[in-house]
Protein backbone atom coordinates (compact mmCIF):
# COMPACT_ATOMS: atom_id res chain seq x y z
CA UNK A 1 0.00 0.00 0.00
CA UNK A 2 2.70 2.41 -1.14
CA UNK A 3 4.80 2.10 2.03
CA UNK A 4 7.34 4.91 2.03
CA UNK A 5 10.74 3.29 1.65
CA UNK A 6 14.11 5.01 1.51
CA UNK A 7 14.27 5.01 -2.30
CA UNK A 8 10.85 6.67 -2.54
CA UNK A 9 11.97 9.35 -0.10
CA UNK A 10 15.04 10.00 -2.24
CA UNK A 11 12.96 10.07 -5.44
CA UNK A 12 10.35 12.49 -4.05
CA UNK A 13 13.08 14.78 -2.69
CA UNK A 14 14.80 14.76 -6.08
CA UNK A 15 11.60 15.65 -7.95
CA UNK A 16 10.78 18.49 -5.53
CA UNK A 17 14.28 19.95 -5.80
CA UNK A 18 14.23 19.62 -9.60
CA UNK A 19 10.93 21.47 -10.04
CA UNK A 20 11.27 24.08 -7.29
CA UNK A 21 12.57 26.86 -9.56
CA UNK A 22 10.92 25.79 -12.83
CA UNK A 23 8.66 28.63 -13.96
CA UNK A 24 6.59 26.33 -16.19
CA UNK A 25 5.64 24.13 -13.20
CA UNK A 26 2.80 25.73 -11.25
CA UNK A 27 1.73 22.97 -8.83
CA UNK A 28 2.90 19.63 -7.49
CA UNK A 29 0.27 16.89 -7.10
CA UNK A 30 0.77 13.74 -5.02
CA UNK A 31 -1.41 10.71 -5.74
CA UNK A 32 -1.22 7.15 -4.44
CA UNK A 33 -0.80 4.32 -6.92
CA UNK A 34 -3.58 1.73 -6.94
CA UNK A 35 -6.99 1.90 -5.33
CA UNK A 36 -6.18 0.91 -1.73
CA UNK A 37 -4.05 3.72 -0.36
CA UNK A 38 -2.43 7.08 -0.80
CA UNK A 39 0.36 5.78 1.45
CA UNK A 40 -0.11 3.49 4.44
CA UNK A 41 3.00 4.81 6.20
CA UNK A 42 6.74 4.56 6.41
CA UNK A 43 8.50 1.28 5.74
CA UNK A 44 8.74 0.36 9.43
CA UNK A 45 9.63 -3.25 8.66
CA UNK A 46 12.84 -1.95 7.12
CA UNK A 47 13.39 0.22 10.20
CA UNK A 48 12.90 -2.89 12.38
CA UNK A 49 15.67 -4.83 10.66
CA UNK A 50 17.98 -1.89 10.02
CA UNK A 51 17.62 -0.54 13.53
CA UNK A 52 18.90 -3.78 15.04
CA UNK A 53 21.62 -4.55 12.49
CA UNK A 54 22.72 -1.07 11.42
CA UNK A 55 21.26 1.72 13.59
CA UNK A 56 23.06 4.45 11.63
CA UNK A 57 21.21 3.38 8.46
CA UNK A 58 17.90 3.59 10.30
CA UNK A 59 18.85 7.06 11.55
CA UNK A 60 19.69 8.04 7.96
CA UNK A 61 16.22 6.89 6.87
CA UNK A 62 14.60 9.20 9.41
CA UNK A 63 16.97 12.07 8.62
CA UNK A 64 16.16 11.89 4.92
CA UNK A 65 12.43 11.48 5.58
CA UNK A 66 12.25 14.53 7.84
CA UNK A 67 14.32 16.58 5.39
CA UNK A 68 11.76 15.68 2.70
CA UNK A 69 8.91 16.66 5.05
CA UNK A 70 10.55 20.05 5.67
CA UNK A 71 10.99 20.62 1.92
CA UNK A 72 7.27 19.92 1.42
CA UNK A 73 6.35 22.25 4.28
CA UNK A 74 8.44 25.13 2.88
CA UNK A 75 7.82 24.48 -0.81
CA UNK A 76 7.40 27.68 -2.87
CA UNK A 77 4.70 26.17 -5.13
CA UNK A 78 1.30 24.78 -4.06
CA UNK A 79 1.42 21.07 -3.25
CA UNK A 80 -1.88 19.18 -3.55
CA UNK A 81 -2.27 15.68 -2.11
CA UNK A 82 -5.22 13.59 -3.27
CA UNK A 83 -5.71 11.23 -0.34
CA UNK A 84 -7.77 8.12 -1.01
CA UNK A 85 -7.78 4.97 1.12
CA UNK A 86 -5.14 4.61 3.82
CA UNK A 87 -3.20 7.75 4.72
CA UNK A 88 -1.10 6.93 7.75
CA UNK A 89 2.08 7.91 9.55
CA UNK A 90 4.80 8.75 7.05
CA UNK A 91 2.15 8.80 4.31
CA UNK A 92 0.41 11.66 6.06
CA UNK A 93 3.87 13.20 6.48
CA UNK A 94 3.91 13.58 2.69
CA UNK A 95 0.34 14.89 2.43
CA UNK A 96 -0.01 16.77 5.70
CA UNK A 97 3.05 18.98 5.30
CA UNK A 98 1.68 20.43 2.05
CA UNK A 99 -0.80 23.26 1.59
CA UNK A 100 -3.77 21.41 0.09
CA UNK A 101 -4.90 18.07 1.53
CA UNK A 102 -7.87 16.57 -0.29
CA UNK A 103 -9.73 13.65 1.31
CA UNK A 104 -12.76 11.64 0.26
CA UNK A 105 -15.25 9.05 1.50
CA UNK A 106 -12.64 6.28 1.31
CA UNK A 107 -9.97 8.05 3.36
CA UNK A 108 -8.73 6.20 6.45
CA UNK A 109 -6.31 8.35 8.42
CA UNK A 110 -4.11 7.57 11.41
CA UNK A 111 -0.93 8.58 13.13
CA UNK A 112 -0.64 5.09 14.69
CA UNK A 113 2.81 5.43 16.22
CA UNK A 114 1.90 4.85 19.89
CA UNK A 115 0.68 1.38 18.84
CA UNK A 116 4.19 0.47 17.64
CA UNK A 117 6.17 2.05 20.48
CA UNK A 118 6.99 5.29 18.67
CA UNK A 119 5.58 8.85 18.53
CA UNK A 120 3.82 11.02 15.90
CA UNK A 121 6.77 12.25 13.86
CA UNK A 122 7.31 13.52 10.26
CA UNK A 123 6.55 17.10 11.36
CA UNK A 124 2.95 16.25 12.21
CA UNK A 125 3.32 16.56 15.98
CA UNK A 126 3.63 20.30 15.33
CA UNK A 127 0.37 20.24 13.39
CA UNK A 128 -1.49 18.07 15.91
CA UNK A 129 -0.38 20.44 18.67
CA UNK A 130 -2.32 23.18 16.90
CA UNK A 131 -5.47 21.06 16.80
CA UNK A 132 -5.96 21.36 20.57
CA UNK A 133 -7.73 18.58 22.44
CA UNK A 134 -8.66 16.78 19.24
CA UNK A 135 -5.04 16.74 18.12
CA UNK A 136 -3.93 15.28 21.46
CA UNK A 137 -6.67 12.65 21.28
CA UNK A 138 -5.65 11.62 17.75
CA UNK A 139 -1.96 11.52 18.66
CA UNK A 140 -2.31 9.48 21.83
CA UNK A 141 -4.89 6.97 20.59
CA UNK A 142 -3.37 6.34 17.17
CA UNK A 143 -6.74 5.07 15.95
CA UNK A 144 -8.04 5.12 12.39
CA UNK A 145 -10.25 8.15 11.68
CA UNK A 146 -12.38 9.24 8.74
CA UNK A 147 -12.28 12.36 6.60
CA UNK A 148 -14.69 14.27 8.85
CA UNK A 149 -12.33 14.00 11.82
CA UNK A 150 -9.47 15.19 9.63
CA UNK A 151 -11.46 18.25 8.59
CA UNK A 152 -12.48 18.97 12.20
CA UNK A 153 -8.84 18.80 13.33
CA UNK A 154 -7.55 20.92 10.46
CA UNK A 155 -5.66 17.94 9.04
CA UNK A 156 -7.37 18.19 5.65
CA UNK A 157 -8.42 21.20 3.62
CA UNK A 158 -10.94 19.77 1.13
CA UNK A 159 -13.42 16.90 1.18
CA UNK A 160 -14.98 15.38 -1.95
CA UNK A 161 -16.91 12.21 -2.74
CA UNK A 162 -13.89 10.95 -4.68
CA UNK A 163 -10.49 12.58 -5.04
CA UNK A 164 -10.59 11.68 -8.73
CA UNK A 165 -13.26 14.40 -9.08
CA UNK A 166 -11.30 17.13 -7.33
CA UNK A 167 -11.66 20.60 -8.83
CA UNK A 168 -8.77 22.95 -8.04
CA UNK A 169 -11.23 25.80 -7.56
CA UNK A 170 -13.20 24.11 -4.78
CA UNK A 171 -13.77 25.92 -1.49
CA UNK A 172 -11.97 24.91 1.66
CA UNK A 173 -14.06 22.52 3.79
CA UNK A 174 -15.89 23.84 6.85
CA UNK A 175 -14.95 22.32 10.22
CA UNK A 176 -18.06 20.55 11.51
CA UNK A 177 -18.42 19.15 15.02
CA UNK A 178 -17.74 15.43 15.32
CA UNK A 179 -19.21 12.83 17.71
CA UNK A 180 -17.85 13.05 21.29
CA UNK A 181 -16.16 16.37 20.57
CA UNK A 182 -17.26 17.98 23.85
CA UNK A 183 -15.98 15.03 25.86
CA UNK A 184 -12.70 15.05 23.95
CA UNK A 185 -12.28 18.75 24.73
CA UNK A 186 -13.11 18.21 28.42
CA UNK A 187 -10.59 15.39 28.83
CA UNK A 188 -7.71 15.89 26.41
CA UNK A 189 -6.84 19.44 27.45
CA UNK A 190 -5.63 18.25 30.86
CA UNK A 191 -2.22 19.31 32.14
CA UNK A 192 -0.73 15.83 32.30
CA UNK A 193 -1.10 12.41 30.75
CA UNK A 194 -1.97 11.07 34.19
CA UNK A 195 -4.84 13.56 34.50
CA UNK A 196 -6.19 12.49 31.10
CA UNK A 197 -6.01 8.87 32.23
CA UNK A 198 -7.82 9.55 35.51
CA UNK A 199 -10.53 11.54 33.76
CA UNK A 200 -11.18 8.69 31.36
CA UNK A 201 -11.19 6.21 34.24
CA UNK A 202 -13.65 8.25 36.28
CA UNK A 203 -16.04 8.86 33.40
CA UNK A 204 -18.58 6.12 32.79
CA UNK A 205 -19.44 6.90 29.19
CA UNK A 206 -18.97 4.35 26.44
CA UNK A 207 -16.54 6.71 24.71
CA UNK A 208 -14.30 7.04 27.78
CA UNK A 209 -14.27 3.29 28.42
CA UNK A 210 -13.34 2.50 24.82
CA UNK A 211 -10.71 5.24 24.70
CA UNK A 212 -9.07 4.11 27.94
CA UNK A 213 -9.00 0.54 26.68
CA UNK A 214 -7.22 1.77 23.54
CA UNK A 215 -4.64 3.73 25.54
CA UNK A 216 -4.01 0.72 27.79
CA UNK A 217 -2.83 -1.20 24.71
CA UNK A 218 -0.34 1.50 23.68
CA UNK A 219 3.29 1.83 24.71
CA UNK A 220 3.36 3.74 28.02
CA UNK A 221 6.60 5.56 27.19
CA UNK A 222 5.26 6.42 23.74
CA UNK A 223 2.19 7.99 25.34
CA UNK A 224 4.34 10.11 27.67
CA UNK A 225 6.70 11.26 24.92
CA UNK A 226 3.79 12.01 22.57
CA UNK A 227 2.07 14.12 25.24
CA UNK A 228 5.22 16.14 25.99
CA UNK A 229 6.17 16.44 22.32
CA UNK A 230 2.83 18.05 21.46
CA UNK A 231 2.95 20.37 24.48
CA UNK A 232 6.42 21.58 23.47
CA UNK A 233 5.57 21.78 19.77
CA UNK A 234 2.68 24.13 20.45
CA UNK A 235 5.18 26.84 21.45
CA UNK A 236 7.75 26.12 18.75
CA UNK A 237 8.34 26.81 15.09
CA UNK A 238 7.84 23.95 12.66
CA UNK A 239 11.60 23.58 12.20
CA UNK A 240 12.28 23.43 15.93
CA UNK A 241 9.65 20.72 16.28
CA UNK A 242 10.81 18.52 13.41
CA UNK A 243 14.41 18.78 14.64
CA UNK A 244 13.18 17.22 17.89
CA UNK A 245 11.39 14.56 15.82
CA UNK A 246 14.81 13.40 14.72
CA UNK A 247 16.35 13.46 18.21
CA UNK A 248 13.39 11.49 19.56
CA UNK A 249 13.56 8.98 16.69
CA UNK A 250 17.23 8.35 17.50
CA UNK A 251 16.36 7.89 21.17
CA UNK A 252 13.61 5.38 20.34
CA UNK A 253 16.08 3.41 18.20
CA UNK A 254 18.20 2.93 21.35
CA UNK A 255 15.33 1.39 23.35
CA UNK A 256 13.20 -1.73 22.98
CA UNK A 257 9.57 -0.55 22.67
CA UNK A 258 9.84 0.47 19.01
CA UNK A 259 11.19 -2.91 17.97
CA UNK A 260 8.72 -4.78 20.16
CA UNK A 261 5.80 -2.77 18.79
CA UNK A 262 6.78 -3.36 15.16
CA UNK A 263 7.35 -7.05 15.91
CA UNK A 264 3.91 -7.46 17.46
CA UNK A 265 2.03 -5.49 14.82
CA UNK A 266 3.88 -6.24 11.58
CA UNK A 267 6.43 -9.06 11.94
CA UNK A 268 4.90 -11.80 14.08
CA UNK A 269 1.49 -10.09 14.03
CA UNK A 270 0.47 -11.52 17.41
CA UNK A 271 -0.81 -8.05 18.44
CA UNK A 272 0.54 -8.66 21.96
CA UNK A 273 3.51 -6.34 22.54
CA UNK A 274 5.42 -6.69 25.80
CA UNK A 275 6.20 -3.07 26.58
CA UNK A 276 9.17 -2.13 28.74
CA UNK A 277 6.80 -0.53 31.27
CA UNK A 278 3.43 -1.98 32.21
CA UNK A 279 1.74 1.34 33.00
CA UNK A 280 2.10 5.07 32.44
CA UNK A 281 2.27 5.36 36.24
CA UNK A 282 5.49 3.29 36.33
CA UNK A 283 7.44 5.81 34.27
CA UNK A 284 9.62 8.39 36.00
CA UNK A 285 10.55 11.88 34.93
CA UNK A 286 14.08 10.57 34.36
CA UNK A 287 12.68 8.02 31.89
CA UNK A 288 10.91 10.82 30.01
CA UNK A 289 13.95 13.10 30.12
CA UNK A 290 16.08 10.40 28.48
CA UNK A 291 14.05 10.92 25.30
CA UNK A 292 13.43 14.66 25.52
CA UNK A 293 17.07 15.46 26.29
CA UNK A 294 18.62 12.77 24.08
CA UNK A 295 21.69 13.98 22.25
CA UNK A 296 24.68 12.51 20.47
CA UNK A 297 26.70 13.38 17.39
CA UNK A 298 24.32 11.46 15.11
CA UNK A 299 21.22 13.47 15.89
CA UNK A 300 22.39 17.08 15.95
CA UNK A 301 20.54 18.09 12.80
CA UNK A 302 18.43 20.95 11.56
CA UNK A 303 15.69 20.61 8.96
* H/E topology pattern: HEEHHEEHEEHHHEHHHHHHH
Strand order of the largest sheet: 1-3-5-7
Q: Say which CATH homologous superfamily is assigned.
A: 2-enoyl-CoA Hydratase, Chain A, domain 1
Largest sheet: 4 strands, parallel
Structural class, please? alpha/beta
Strand content: 5-15%
- Rg over alpha carbons: 19 Å
What is the strand tally? 7
Helix content: 40-55%
Estimate the global geometry from the Cα principal axes: globular
Q: In DSSP terms, counting alpha (H) and pi (I) runs of 4 or more, how many helices?
A: 14
CATH classification class:
Alpha Beta
CA(first)-CA(last) distance: 27 Å
Question: What CATH architecture do you see?
Answer: Alpha-Beta Complex
Explain what the structure shows.
With about 300 residues, the chain is α/β, with parallel strands linked by helices. The chain has a single domain, classed as 2-enoyl-CoA Hydratase, Chain A, domain 1 (Alpha-Beta Complex). The protein has 14 helices and 7 strands. The chain has helices at about 5-20, 45-55, 55-75, 90-95, 125-130, 130-140, 145-150, 180-185, 195-200, 205-215, 220-235, 240-255, 255-265, 285-290, and strands spanning about 30, 35-40, 80-85, 85-90, 100-105, 110, 160. A 4-stranded parallel beta sheet has the order 1-3-5-7. A 3-stranded parallel beta sheet has the order 2-4-6. The radius of gyration is 19 Å and the shape is globular. The two termini are about 25 Å apart. About 45% of the residues are buried. The model has no long low-confidence stretch (mean pLDDT about 95).
Amino acid sequence: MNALNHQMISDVTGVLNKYKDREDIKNIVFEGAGDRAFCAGGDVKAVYYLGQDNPKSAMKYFADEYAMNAIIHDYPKPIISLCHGYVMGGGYGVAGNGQHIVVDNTTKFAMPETAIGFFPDVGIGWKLARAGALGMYIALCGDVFDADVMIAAGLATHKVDSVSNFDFNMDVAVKDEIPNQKEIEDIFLKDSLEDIWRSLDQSQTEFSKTTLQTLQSRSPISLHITFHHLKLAKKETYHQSIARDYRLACAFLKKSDLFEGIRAQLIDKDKCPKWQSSSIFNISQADIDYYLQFSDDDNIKQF
